[in-house]
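Retro notes (design track)

What went well: tokenization of the new backbones is finally stable.
What didn't: we kept losing track of which sequence belonged to which structure.
Fix going forward: every design gets posted as structure first, then sequence, in one message. First example under the new rule, 226 residues:
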């Protein structure tokens, strides 16, 4: 049902980008409220109580995206995903002072943006609303309840970490994950091992699951499932 996934406020003065983001979010069941400057963005958040705010850094007028984010942080805990025009903005955006939950740099793929929105919502709200025990990744069924990977109904035996890695990738389907993110998510943030550990486990997953696993290597970054 349209709107069932909750409301997202999109603060962006570029109407083409705002409409594109709007379109993709609505396809995923979100209700979208647009605002074209910082002041109306803050008013929209106050009024709509959204699940998440997508916020452009460069906004016209006195209140730019950085300032909007600061005020949102001061006022509450709504998750914020920033749109940045330059990689050089990223440090400021994610810094402690600002504390955005995530960012994408323009130009971005709307599909990637929606995947990030969902990942933030999962993190910030704990369990997802729709938390299926069995996730589908290409031809692989990832059964988190039974801790089984199945291809065409047949269980493929995996080592514990291999299954954990597969499940983590499946939970973040469509997202590019760096080796560091995978280490943090699967091995835990306190794990100071070599990032090549991830590659070793990925190789095992590919060997065992073959073409059923739609796992791509993103050169220089990490991996993406789906
Ligand atoms: Ca802008």
């Amino acid at each position: 049902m349209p709107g069932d996934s909750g409301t997202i406020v999109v603060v962006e003065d570029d109407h083409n980008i705002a409409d594109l983001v709007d379109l993709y979010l609505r396809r995923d069941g979100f209700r979208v409220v647009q605002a074209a400057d910082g002041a109306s963005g803050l008013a929209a958040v106050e009024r709509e109580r959204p699940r998440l705010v997508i916020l452009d850094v460069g906004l016209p007028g006195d209140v730019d995206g950085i300032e909007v984010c600061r005020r949102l942080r001061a006022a509450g805990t709504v998750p914020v995903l920033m749109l940045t025009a330059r990689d050089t903005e990223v440090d400021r955006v994610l810094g402690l002072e600002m504390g955005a939950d995530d960012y994408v740099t323009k130009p971005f793929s709307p599909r990637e943006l929606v995947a990030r929105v969902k990942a933030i919502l999962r993190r910030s709200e704990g369990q997802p609303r729709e938390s299926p025990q069995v996730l589908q990744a290409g031809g692989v069924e990832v059964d988190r309840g039974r801790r089984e990977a199945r291809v065409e109904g047949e269980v493929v035996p995996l080592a514990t970490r291999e299954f954990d890695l597969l499940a983590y990738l499946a939970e973040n389907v469509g997202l590019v994950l760096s080796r560091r993110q995978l280490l943090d998510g699967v091995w835990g943030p306190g794990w100071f091992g070599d990032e090549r550990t991830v590659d070793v486990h990925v190789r095992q997953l590919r060997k065992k699951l073959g073409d059923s696993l739609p796992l791509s290597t993103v050169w220089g970054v990490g991996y993406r499932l789906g």
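Added context from the reviewer: Residues 84 and 159 are 40 Å apart (CA to CA).
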